[in-house]
Amino acid sequence: MARARSEERRAEIVRAALEVIAERGYRGASLGAVAERVGLTQQGLLHYFPTKEALLVAVLEERDRWDTSGARDREHWRLDLMESLVEYNAMRPGIVQTFSALLGESVTEDHPARAFFTERYTQVRENMAEVLRAEFGDELPGGLTPERAAPLLTAVMDGLQYQWLLDPEAVDMPASFRDFLALLKEDKEGRVKAP
C-alpha cells in the first residue's frame, strides 16, 4: 500500500515537473517550483528525486513511455503507427514543447539530459531502421538502405515538431508526415510502391 502511494506521488511529481519545464524550460525550472505545485517542501521532493537531474530523466522516460505505450516491443512498430504517433503529438502541444525545449538545451556539453538524448537517438535510429526494413526489405524504393533512411525519418519527425510549434496554422504536422511517407514509397522513377 505504501509502495503504491509512493509510486502515485512520484507520478504526480513527474507530471508537475513536466508542466513547470514546459512553462520555464529546464534551466528556469526549480525543484522548489515543482515541490510547490504538488504541495511538498523542496526537502520533501528530494525524498522522491534526490537531484534535479534525476527528476529530468524521470520526465523524459515518462514521455517516452506515453509515446510507446502498447508498442514497446520494437517488432510492433510499423510506419502506420509512426503516422499515428505524429497525429497523437499534434493533440498535445505542451508535451511536444517540453520535449523539444529539452532536446534543444541538451546539445550543450554540460546538460544533464545530453546522455539521455544521445542514447535515445541511437535506439530510435535502430528502431526506425527495423520499421523501414519490415516495410521495404533491405532497400527502399528510392534505393536507400533502412539504416541510411532511419536518421532522415527521425529528423523529419522532430523537425516537423519544431516547425509546428512555431507556426501551427501554417504547418499541418500529420499531413506533412504523410507526405514524407509517400516520398519514401516512391521509386527512382517517381512511382509509389504498391501497398
Notes on the structure:
The structure is a single chain. Helix 1 crosses helix 2, helix 1 (2-28) packs across helix 6 and helix 2 packs across helix 3. The protein has helices at 2-28, 31-37, 42-48, 52-68, 79-89, 93-105, 114-136, 146-166, 173-185. The longest helix is centred in the N-terminal third of the chain and has 27 residues, at 2-28. It is built from nine helices and no strands. The protein has 195 residues and is mainly alpha-helical. It is elongated.
In short:
This protein has about 200 residues and is mainly alpha-helical. It has helices spanning about 1-30, 30-35, 40-50, 50-70, 80-90, 95-105, 115-135, 145-165, 175-185. The relative contact order is 0.10.
Topology:
Blueprint: H1 2-28, H2 31-37, H3 42-48, H4 52-68, H5 79-89, H6 93-105, H7 114-136, H8 146-166, H9 173-185
Helix pairs in contact: 1-2, 1-4, 1-6, 2-3, 5-9, 6-8, 7-8, 8-9
Beta-strand content: under 5%
Helical amount: over 70%
List the secondary-structure elements in sequence, H or E: HHHHHHHHH
**Biggest β-sheet, characterized?**
none
Rg, Cα atoms, Å: 19 Å
- Kindly report the average pLDDT value: 86
The number of helices is 9
3D shape: elongated
In whole angstroms, how far apart are the ends? Answer: 51 Å
